[in-house]
Design a protein that fits this description.
By secondary structure, the protein is mainly alpha-helical. The chain contains 13 helices and eight strands. The chain folds into three domains: about 5-115, DNA polymerase, domain 1, CATH 1.10.150.130; about 130-205, hpI Integrase, Chain A; about 240-355.
Length: about 350
């Protein structure tokens, strides 16, 4: 659950309390006020998520609520982020806009510092690939759904989410146009559809024949694809838990450039953390069954490395002679597992970096 989803759940609980009001920190109270202001102004969910994250980072930097931060503190914060941490133009712009919205609209403070802070504007020429380079790159994309989606993006000039949300009904073959709905800023638009792209989309649609989506994913639009021809015969008839370990957003750029090393560390650290706790007599005290799967992209084609684990709700004793059932309604404490995983991941990453040439 991301930060925005958690705040929306708190918002609903406060509006419709079932068993008393939930305990909310000072920062969360201010974030909820800010969330309500953004909803009233009709900002998109992605913008809301970015803005509340910017306020949380500001609060964590000084260790106090954002309403307790002075204009001088704010000036030093921007200098620190831009000069020492070397924030990119995009990151700086999002943080500036989020903080400006909070002080201008949520707590009504008009500070000159917010008015003149600007992210640096780098004037760079874009990298333009030739047609040959584009088609060579696309030919190396193995899965058809990704390759054809990227071809549609390139030939029609679409944004990523415009392509992933493309519906079958949005393809107008009589006028050779694509109807793009709810684009950036909530606007609709029409773009030309090349004849070759239309033929490619028609052939790809025959592979799934989904009545709604052009690029359906499992669980989307009634699509439920089996992962195997037959059920797994060795799956134990016991309760199971789905445990997910996610790579922090700050390390995604490192993972893209060192995929083999980082993915290996992510898989090993997640398994080691889970086995460390489940073998502890306080929780289970034996050997659990684990099936791990590494995923690197979300359904809407965002880079998001994470590991899904299917874990048995019980374990074999250390001598392998008896089955130990769960002592609690949960597998292991979530916060303890997170700390153990972070420690093992950090240690392995430092070790890998020290061994690098």
């Amino acid at each position: 659950m991301n930060e925005l989803q958690r705040l929306k759940e708190l918002q609903q609980l406060i509006a419709n309390p079932i068993e008393g009001l939930p305990q909310v920190s000072v920062l969360e109270q201010l974030q909820l006020r800010m969330l309500g202001d953004m909803q009233l102004r009709g900002l998109s969910e992605r913008t809301q998520e970015s803005y509340v994250r910017a306020i949380r980072k500001l609060s964590e930097h000084y260790g106090r609520g954002p309403d307790q931060i002075s204009e001088k503190d704010l000036r030093e914060y921007f200098l620190y982020r831009m000069n020492l941490q070397k924030w990119s133009r995009v990151t700086s712009t999002i943080a500036i806009c989020g903080i400006k919205f909070f002080y201008d609209h949520t707590i009504k403070r008009k500070w000159p510092t917010i008015g003149f802070v600007r992210a640096r504007h780098d004037k760079k020429l874009p990298v333009i690939l030739s047609r040959t380079e584009v088609w060579v790159s696309l030919s190396h994309v193995r899965l058809a759904v990704y390759r054809i989606c990227l071809q549609t993006i390139y030939s029609c000039g679409l944004r990523l989410q415009e392509a992933t949300r493309l519906r079958v009904a949005d393809i107008d073959s009589s006028r050779m146009m694509l109807h793009i709905r709810f684009s950036k800023g909530g606007k609709d638009r029409c773009v030309p559809l090349p004849g070759r792209t239309l033929l490619i989309l028609r052939e790809y649609w025959k592979s799934h024949r989904n009545k709604i989506w052009m690029f359906p994913a499992c669980g989307r639009g009634g699509i439920h694809r089996p992962n195997a021809d037959k059920p797994m015969p060795l799956l134990l008839k016991v309760p199971h838990f789905l445990v997910t370990f996610t790579l922090p957003a700050e390390l995604r750029a490192l993972a893209r450039s060192h995929q083999k090393t980082v993915y290996n560390i992510l898989m090993r650290a997640s398994a080691a953390a889970l086995l460390t706790l489940t073998q502890n007599p306080k929780f289970l005290g034996g050997m659990v069954g684990i099936i791990s799967v590494l995923q690197t992209w979300t359904r809407d084609l965002r880079y998001h490395p994470h590991v899904h684990m299917l874990v048995s709700g019980g374990c074999l004793s250390k001598d392998g002679q008896s089955w130990l059932s769960l002592r609690y309604p949960y597998l292991v404490p979530q916060k303890v597992l997170a700390r153990v995983f972070a420690g093992k991941f950090r240690h392995a990453l430092k070790k890998a970096s020290s061994c690098a040439p």
